[in-house]
Amino acid sequence: MADCGCFGEAIKLTNWETFFKNLVLLPFAILLNYQSNRFIPVAPSHWEWGFTAFFALLLALLSVYSYRNLPMVDLMEFRTGTNIRERLSYSFDKDTPRFETLLIYTKDGKEYQFSMDNLPDSSYTFKDSRTREVGGRRSLSYIDFAVSDSAGDYITDSLLSISGPLFIATTPYSDFLGKRRIARLNSLYDTLLSKDIPMILLSGSGHQENIALKSGFGLKPAIYHTDKKTIYTINRSYGGVVYLYDAVVVSKWSTSGIPFRELDGLLLEDPELLAAKRRIREHLAVEFTAFALLVIIAAMRCFLRIFYKHKNDETGKEQEP
């Protein structure tokens, strides 16, 4: 195992890094365990159960939202802004050229440059984008993206060589696509076909299951096969759509979240700017969620300090939590 997975895809630690992390945290855990009887309760036990249920409900709502739509933040290899063609063809040769996209923003009359991994907040105004060659050894991790047709022939290169927009619908299992999702995918396919924009579907099921999906439910996009793990990495929903432009991931949606009304505007918008906007929204979502949780915790703390006094069993005096 290359990493421990303690923090999912957010923070990757090697096994040795995890070991030393545990060595640092272990003394604090032991101290807290031996001092637990001396802690002053912050709330009556039935209140604590209520707070636990409240946060469990928040977690459940977030999980349901992520399941039905997309996670608030995409930390996987195919996140927005990823150049799949470049990631598949990278070399560790230090002489191999590497390119970086810079986004130019303005604020208070001054220009600022940002990379796709370090985007500003909404107070900045987008102006332009440029691509420059950068030196140094590549440090990109390996990604798996192998697509085959019904005959078993790989079409990955021809797929990623498509110039301009390409829409890829995804499903790990063919039976995950019910009539409602198929109807939405067919509607998207017809809309894109009228604009001469290709659309395919990547399925993790076998050839026979894909044939049944095509003939039994009238699915219009051509179906190709790839590994289920790759599909989960590309789009975390159980039926989603990915918008590529020159093999770069521009945006993603769940099947229920396909923006039919905004589609014309999205196709006219600069792909790099559109990808940057999505990354900014992800950053803002994380910041807003963290801020909201801190506000909720602070509000609960203030509420308890006002309405709850803990009585010391030895002295009989009331103590603030």
What does the secondary structure layout of this molecule look like, with pairings?
Elements: H1 15-34, H2 45-68, H3 84-89, E1 98-107, E2 110-115, E3 125-134, H4 156-160, E4 165-171, H5 179-193, E5 199-203, H6 207-217, E6 222-225, H7 228-234, E7 240-245, E8 248-254, H8 263-268, H9 271-307, E9 310-311, E10 318-319
Parallel strand pairs: 4-5, 5-6
Antiparallel strand pairs: 1-2, 1-3, 4-7, 7-8, 9-10
CATH hierarchy: architecture of the domain at 156-276: 3-Layer(aba) Sandwich
Assign a percent range to the helix content. 40-55%
| Class per helix and strand makeup | alpha+beta
Quaternary structure of the protein: single chain
CATH superfamily of the domain at 156-276: Glutaredoxin
Description of the molecule:
With 321 residues, the protein is an alpha+beta fold. Among the domains are: 91-139, no CATH class; 156-276, 3-Layer(aba) Sandwich (Glutaredoxin), CATH 3.40.30.10. The protein contains nine helices and ten strands. A five-stranded mixed β-sheet has the order 6-5-4-7-8, sandwiched between helices. Strands 2-1-3 form a three-stranded antiparallel β-sheet, with helices on one face. It has a two-stranded antiparallel ribbon with strand order 9-10. The longest helix has 37 residues, at 271-307. The relative contact order is 0.13. Mean pLDDT is 81; it is low at 91-95.
